[in-house]
From TrEMBL:
Top-level EC class: oxidoreductase
EC numbers for this chain: 1.14.99.56
Signal sequence residues: 1-20
Protein name per Swiss-Prot or TrEMBL: lytic cellulose monooxygenase (C4-dehydrogenating)
Record organism: Colletotrichum sojae
Cellular component aspect of the GO annotation: extracellular region
């Protein structure tokens, strides 16, 4: 009986730790949730985050580069609103960003995300009066527009939320990532700029990644990865 209390406490701590994690599991098109891992590539690390920004896992999460052939492609019109839904609400404070990468002449189901990525949307922080707030916290779905200038073709659509609760030490930031497979339709003919590569977009030393959000309270915050691209 004496050993029951610490074991129970350990199990409770493990449960709370697990529940504090989350996943982007579904794509939302035309206001309809298309289902868990129908258009979103399935990862292999359950709801654990990526912490190594130089790893290939930063592209589409652990296992996300090998699950494309088991994932369907969603047709999406340029200029339309789409979104990602989660298995539970965001628990850790931090920003959200959304990225597009064209599969080129190949099929997106076999595309490894090694090409250019354009940030098309971000949700950062509100700082001032000695406080910083991340509006993404507590949310379980995010909607955004596919730019109307997006050329037709197949793309990886990547969403990333960074948990900054332990980010005061390098490698402490937690990256929650999913990639969906979409086929953009329309007559867009733009070229996105700027673009980045994953891995490569982050070193881990960026002030939006290596940061103490508690003390001293930041007076400003910039979402890492550069500005939202234009085309």
């Amino acid at each position: 009986m004496k050993s029951f209390v610490p074991i129970s406490a350990a199990l409770a701590a493990l449960c709370n730790f697990t529940l504090a994690h989350y996943r982007f599991t579904s794509l939302v098109v035309g206001g309809r949730n298309t289902g868990e891992y129908v258009n979103v590539r399935r990862n292999t690390n359950h709801n654990s985050p990526v912490t190594d920004v130089l790893s290939k896992d930063i592209v589409c999460n652990a296992g996300g580069l090998s699950s494309g052939t088991a994932t369907q492609i969603a047709p999406v019109a340029a200029g339309s609103t789409v979104g990602f839904a989660m298995d539970q609400a965001i628990y850790h404070d931090g920003p959200v960003s959304v990225w597009l990468s064209p599969a080129g002449s190949g099929n997106v189901t076999t595309y490894d995300g090694s090409g250019p990525w354009a940030k098309i949307w971000e949700l950062g922080a509100q700082a001032g009066n000695g406080q910083i707030r991340f509006p993404a916290s507590g949310q379980s779905a995010f909607n955004f527009q596919i730019p109307s200038c997006t050329p037709p073709g197949e793309y990886l659509l990547r969403i990333e939320q960074i948990g900054l609760h332990s980010a005061s030490a390098k490698g402490g930031a937690q990256f929650y990532i999913s990639c969906a497979q979409i086929r953009v339709t329309g007559s867009g003919g733009g070229q996105f700029s700027p673009t980045v590569r994953f891995p490569g977009a982050y070193s881990g030393n960026e002030p939006g990644i290596l940061i103490n959000i508690y003390y001293p309270v930041p007076t400003t915050y910039t979402v890492p990865g550069g500005p939202v691209a234009r085309c």
